[in-house]
Design a protein that fits this description.
102 residues, mainly alpha, Serine Threonine Protein Phosphatase 5, Tetratricopeptide repeat, 6 helices, 61% helix
């Protein structure tokens, strides 16, 4: 009998992958977006997430516009995600998003 299992990436491994030239294979578009954001490529992060229309993507979209400094646009996307405007730092929000998606 062959058993199949999903190998879950740990947060520390995701952080370590930031030194690589590309995101880890087999991670979602959500995590790819956050990976590119952490690498300083806001445009790529935004491009990956802007055409996904669910609450997770809306939350990442909100975070990205918050990081950009566009509070009004961020507020719109937090509302779409069903999330309050956060009172934590951008880094804390990024980490919480990654951990929730891993």
């Amino acid at each position: 009998m062959i058993s199949f299992y999903f190998c879950r990436m740990e947060f520390e491994n995701f952080i370590s992958s930031l030194s690589a030239g590309k995101p880890p294979e087999m991670v979602s578009a959500y995590l790819q977006s956050l990976w590119y954001d952490a690498r300083g490529n806001w445009n790529k992060a935004h491009d990956l997430i802007q055409d996904i229309h669910d609450s997770k993507a809306s939350h990442i979209h909100a975070y990205l516009h918050r990081k950009e400094g566009d509070a009004s646009n961020a507020g719109y996307w937090y509302n779409r995600a069903g999330k309050p405007y956060p009172l934590v730092t951008l880094q804390e929000e990024w980490e919480a998003l990654v951990k929730a998606l891993l």
